[in-house]
């Protein structure tokens, strides 16, 4: 089992994301495999999917998987997998959080389209992400994203290195590129 990503959800399940092998949820209490969830079940026969990243919407419990075929959603209430309707991009990373006012947001990093906002309810991607920052991220390959304790968003990009968007009261004010 080639492990690409590990993730512990809010219920205590450990998720193992594997290259071309699906996703394996494991009970953290028993250490036993719960199931092998295949993202490619909704795609044409013979398609194999690599899971690049995983995130949880802690309000709904839904789990989101980033893959070269887009975003897949595991519905927490039915434990059924579906592909997000309007996300046909190669997604490399996914990050779900809330701003200081409690408004939820989801960022998706892509293979060659930079960072976008993904609307969790409408399942749509939006190009404009940092409208007040004079820095183009449209064609970057994004490797990873995270938010620090001060609310700054850190983005690891292949062509640019490390980018941090410093935030103040929810407004992106500037960037620092570290190479």
Features:
179 residues; mainly beta; 15 strands; 4-stranded antiparallel β-sheet
What does this structure look like?
This protein has 179 residues and is mainly beta. It has strands at residues 3-8, 13-18, 22-27, 53-56, 63-67, 70-75, 80-83, 91-98, 104-110, 115-119, 124-126, 142-147, 153-157, 161-168, 171-178. The strands form 4 sheets. The chain has a 4-stranded antiparallel sheet with strand order 4-5-6-7, with no helix packed on it. Strands 8-9-10-11 form a 4-stranded antiparallel sheet, with no helix packed on it. The chain is globular. It starts with a strand and ends with a strand. The mean pLDDT is 76. The chain contains no helices and 15 strands.
Brief overview:
This protein has strands spanning 3-8, 13-18, 22-27, 53-56, 63-67, 70-75, 80-83, 91-98, 104-110, 115-119, 124-126, 142-147, 153-157, 161-168, 171-178. It has 179 residues and is mainly β. A four-stranded antiparallel beta sheet has the order 4-5-6-7, with no helix packed on it. The chain has a four-stranded antiparallel beta sheet with strand order 8-9-10-11, with no helix packed on it.
Could you outline the blueprint of secondary structure elements for this entry?
Layout: E1 3-8, E2 13-18, E3 22-27, E4 53-56, E5 63-67, E6 70-75, E7 80-83, E8 91-98, E9 104-110, E10 115-119, E11 124-126, E12 142-147, E13 153-157, E14 161-168, E15 171-178
Antiparallel strand pairs: 1-2, 2-3, 4-5, 5-6, 6-7, 8-9, 9-10, 10-11, 12-13, 13-14, 14-15
